[in-house]
Design brief:
The protein is mainly alpha-helical. The protein contains six helices and no strands.
Length: 211
């Protein structure tokens, strides 16, 4: 039987509490979209102005590794969605398991991305001190700067999400968060995780598949 709990103050009913939490989360997510939107706009402008050089730089990236990471993140989003549904039904242990699974997939993404960065460093693709760049033009070097900034920023957001999911999985398994608060927290955490995944879904074609 699903658990029940009184609505926390200052809210009058569960619907008001839910709406307030969702509005706050939407405002936060909008700020994140603007942050990454600036990077996408810069990449689009570079692609339009210097198509041939951008395509040449993009073709040097490991699109197969990026594709694997895309599949990993999409699967993790499925796990989070399943966790939310389980949490709504009062199945705390099941929800915690799905959350932990999503966090593990997030760690797999970071491990794969670390391997990819290492390969790019060895190949002279990363624009970092001590690396002899293999690019002949400043536009290609700028493209890789943008790639590194965008993917590193995404990895930072993903790391925050992994910590969030692990903490939430532990609290959910212990039933430390009663309903309806648990459902609200699961939904808002899920929105953050889905945003991080969607950002990568756009990063992948913009940087890896420019043709």
């Amino acid at each position: 039987m699903p658990e029940t709990a009184p609505v926390t103050e200052p809210y009058r009913d569960p619907r008001q509490q839910h709406d307030a939490a969702m509005m706050g989360m939407y405002i936060f997510l909008s700020s994140e979209i603007m942050l990454f939107g600036g990077l996408f706009a810069a990449a689009a402008a570079m692609r339009l102005a210097h198509a041939a050089e951008v395509v040449q730089a993009s073709q040097a990236l490991h699109f197969g590794i990026g594709g694997l990471n895309t599949a990993v993140l999409l699967t993790s989003s499925l796990f989070v969605a399943l966790a939310i549904e389980a949490g709504k039904g009062g199945k705390a242990a099941t929800a915690a398991g799905w959350l932990a699974g999503a966090a593990v997939l997030g760690l797999c993404f970071l491990a794969i991305k670390t391997y990819e960065y290492h390969a790019e460093f060895a190949e002279g693709l990363l624009p970092v001190p001590g690396v002899q760049s293999r690019y002949a033009t400043s536009i290609q070097h700028l493209f890789m700067n943008l790639y590194l900034a965008a993917t590193a920023l995404h990895a930072l957001h993903l790391t925050i999400g992994i910590v969030l999911l692990l903490v939430l999985a532990l609290q959910t398994a212990r039933r430390a968060i009663p309903l309806p608060q648990r459902s609200i927290i699961l939904i808002t955490a899920g929105l953050y995780w889905h945003l991080v995944d969607v950002v990568w879904v756009f990063l992948y074609p913009v940087f890896y598949l420019a043709r």
